[in-house]
Amino acid sequence: MLFYNPAGSDFLAQVAKQWEEEAETVQELGIRLVICRFGHVLGLNGGILPKLSYLSKWHLTSRWGSGKQWTSWIHEKDLAKCVAFLLKKSEILGPVNITSPNPIRNQELMDSLSNITGKSVLIPSIPEFILRLITGEFASVFVNGQRVIPDILLHQGFKFDYPDISGALKNIIQNPDSLE
Fold first, then answer.
1. Is the residue at 2 inside a domain?
2. Nearest to residue 71, comparing CAs of 17, 110, 36?
3. Averaged over 134-140, what is the pLDDT?
4. Those residues with Cβ within 8 angstroms of residue 146's Cβ, 6 or more apart along the chain or in another chain
5. Residue 158 belongs to a domain with what CATH number?
6. Please, which residues bridge with residue 95 across strands?
């Protein structure tokens, strides 16, 4: 193994840790194992963007809680390129972060989305307690955030087409035909 990305300690990280431990059993059969740890996927028809776009439509792209929490994300085209890259690189084993090399704060994500869609924000923030009421323990994903860097991909020379949030959102929202 060239590099190793250690797991986090929050709710989602613990769930991932359990299934990753189960997946490791395939190595006993001599099967190469690469575990993809995905950031929030930005795509026209899936991932987090359709939900955020719906909020934007109603002028609700408010920051979540303080808005200072990190959001690790990836454009769907870069995600597909990452998977193809990993299939070709047989020396890469174990957990691999599949995220943009430029994580952003929640406030920046919401501001970028608001600017690109031209929809102003009606309320300044969604309080943390409301997120916890709506999503329970899963709120830690929104409230705590994660600042994840794709070290393995970068060290292996992977080149992202959409490394910054503004370019990624513009590509998806303003040029939806380019995704087909």
1. no
2. 110
3. 74
4. 8, 10, 39, 70, 71, 72, 103
5. 3.40.50.720
6. 35
Query: 152 lies in which domain range?
Result: 11-175
Confidence of residue 150 (pLDDT cuts 50, 70, 90): very high
Asked whether the beta carbons of 180 and 30 are under 8 A apart, the reply is: no
The DSSP code sequence of 25-40 is: GGGGGT---EEEEE-E
Three-state SS string over 164-176 comes to CHHHHHHHHHHCH
CB 133 within 8 A of CB 127: no
Q: CA 155, CA 5: separation in Å to the nearest integer?
A: 13
- The number of domains in the chain is 1
Closest CA to 38 of 47, 26, 25: 47
Q: State the pTM of this model.
A: 0.82
